[in-house]
UniProtKB/TrEMBL annotation:
<dbReference type="Pfam" id="PF13905">
    <property type="entry name" value="Thioredoxin_8"/>
</dbReference>
<dbReference type="InterPro" id="IPR050553">
    <property type="entry name" value="Thioredoxin_ResA/DsbE_sf"/>
</dbReference>
<keyword id="KW-0201">Cytochrome c-type biogenesis</keyword>
<dbReference type="InterPro" id="IPR036249">
    <property type="entry name" value="Thioredoxin-like_sf"/>
</dbReference>
<protein>
    <submittedName>
        <fullName>TlpA family protein disulfide reductase</fullName>
    </submittedName>
</protein>
<keyword id="KW-1015">Disulfide bond</keyword>
<dbReference type="GO" id="GO:0030313">
    <property type="term" value="C:cell envelope"/>
</dbReference>
<dbReference type="InterPro" id="IPR012336">
    <property type="entry name" value="Thioredoxin-like_fold"/>
</dbReference>
<dbReference type="GO" id="GO:0017004">
    <property type="term" value="P:cytochrome complex assembly"/>
</dbReference>
<dbReference type="InterPro" id="IPR013766">
    <property type="entry name" value="Thioredoxin_domain"/>
</dbReference>
<keyword id="KW-0676">Redox-active center</keyword>
<feature type="domain" description="Thioredoxin">
    <location>
        <begin position="326"/>
        <end position="473"/>
    </location>
</feature>
Length: 475
């Protein structure tokens, strides 16, 4: 439990933060004149490059650029009318930056930090703030996987101290490196809501025992209510994540229950306002629309009325049509694969061979750490449903056939399910329809090859066993 003096000092900090955020406005709208709807990223190409970003539809986009004898420079265009936070990745060291529509950025090796990149453009101090913060403090991508034995006294003091440290760094950086009002607003917002993300960690942690949460901690979270309707803050991923987690806090009594998704939707609909409400509802619908939830069509219909952003509604409609196309579109059905014996087969033939069976497809790769970690659960599933009409299919997006075959053997998947290597994995019509990468990704289909869940539960989810049992019993 947190002692009284700690709780009081913590509440004072929260109050001062709230006053600051409620009184701020959105200077970025005037500081950056939107020239068009795109961001251009370019540079010399001397090595393999990878960067990722979350687009305005909340999709994680990974860009892989490989040098060859004919290419000495790269040029990538991101089409967006909203700011984007990108992150270049080299040897698991991240170089993030906030970019705005109209920005043209030149990327080069960082002169100070190893395995990092420097961004040059109209506002270089703005562009390099997040990378400097990441390499000096390591807190840009802060998140904590906490367990049920956590000492809340230590936890709350720890994240409070880290927030104060980040805030101090931000103030000093602004003094040493002149930045725009846009960056100043963004950095203050991102650091503040990064702190709230950390504070809300129990509500982003699976199977957390909320009975062990101190009353003072609950009171602290309730004091934040007014901080989660800031339309100007939607440029910050930390703000959006904090909103999602705060919604889970408000719905904590429904977490893990059958009505969880619908309780989250109803609470978000009533609690949030404006752009924040649109974004939270959009994420809830997007994340759950292909999970095969009962009565989901009712909420899908409500979303078209509850959400005011037409681009979100159009995107959800396209996702619905995309999931239907998995079994009907010729370009998707013609997606080609290689079997472990070297034979070529297409998606239509795979579905035909498994008609009359429930199909659970695991999209993975030898280099994907989370994929490998979940394989023991997949093997257990295969054993559980040995005598049921369920096909377990493993589709790798490896570029190297030998690494794929070795991974099958090394992970114990020999003799488990049916294995295929996807040809043109990152660019195939099936990959694009399912939004792959990222992986792992799971696809669940019924006995008539109908899509039950285009984004199915992972094999370690207890609810999947119930779902597979029910589907296998259906005619």
């Amino acid at each position: 439990m947190i002692n009284k003096s700690i709780s009081q000092s913590f509440s004072l900090i929260i109050s001062s933060i709230l006053i600051g955020i409620i009184s701020c406005s959105a200077p970025h709208a005037n500081s950056y004149k939107i020239q068009n709807d795109s961001i251009v990223i370019s540079g010399n190409l001397t090595e393999f490059l990878h960067f990722s970003y979350v687009n305005q539809n909340n999709d994680l986009i990974g860009v892989f650029i490989t040098p060859d004898s004919t290419k000495t420079r790269f040029r990538e265009v991101i089409y967006t009318n909203l700011p984007v936070r990108i992150a270049f990745d080299k040897n698991r060291n991240f170089s993030p930056a906030i970019l705005y529509p109209g920005d043209e950025v030149e990327v080069s090796p960082h002169p100070q930090y190893a395995d990092a990149y420097y961004f040059n453009g109209k506002h270089p101090n703005d562009l390099n703030f997040l990378t400097t913060l990441e390499h000096e403090k390591g807190y840009v991508f802060s998140s904590y996987n906490i367990n049920n034995g956590i000492n809340f006294n230590f936890f709350m003091n720890f994240i409070r101290d880290k927030y104060i440290e980040r805030k101090s760094f931000n103030n000093q950086y602004s003094k040493d490196h002149p930045v725009t009002k846009a960056l100043k607003f963004f950095s203050e917002t991102d650091i503040l809501y990064g702190y709230y993300d950390d504070l809300l960690s129990p509500y982003s942690t699976d199977n957390f025992d909320f009975n062990k949460v101190p009353v003072s901690y609950i009171d602290t979270l309730y004091s934040l209510k007014s901080a989660f309707n800031c339309d100007d803050c939607v440029i910050s991923l930390n703000y959006l994540d904090a909103c999602y987690f705060y919604n889970r806090f408000l719905c904590r009594d429904s977490l893990g229950k059958d009505n969880e998704t619908y309780a989250l939707y109803d609470t978000a609909r009533n609690f949030f306002k404006g752009k924040t409400k649109d974004r939270v509802l959009f994420k809830l619908i997007k994340d759950n629309m292909n999970r095969g939830l009962p009565n989901f069509e009712v909420y899908l219909k409500r979303f078209t009325t509850d959400c005011y952003d037409s681009s979100y509604k159009k995107y959800i409609d396209s996702l619905y049509k995309r999931s239907m196309a998995i079994t009907t579109a010729d370009t998707i059905l013609n997606t080609r694969f290689i079997s472990v014996t070297g034979d070529t087969i297409n998606w239509h033939e795979i579905l035909t061979q498994n008609k009359g069976k429930v199909i659970y497809t695991d999209f993975w790769a030898s280099w994907c750490v989370p994929c490998i970690a979940l394989i023991p659960f997949s093997i257990r599933l295969d054993s559980t449903f040995k005598n049921k009409n369920i096909s377990f299919i493993y589709i790798s997006i490896d570029a190297d056939k030998e690494k794929w075959l070795k991974a099958i053997s090394k992970t114990g998947l020999n003799g488990i399910g049916t294995h295929y290597l996807m040809i043109e994995s990152h660019n195939s019509a099936l990959s694009r329809a399912l939004g792959i990468p990222p992986i792992p990704h799971y696809l669940l289909m019924g006995k008539q090859s109908q899509v039950i869940a285009a984004k199915a539960s992972r094999p370690n989810n207890p609810g999947l066993v119930f779902q597979l049992n029910k589907l296998s019993e259906n005619k």
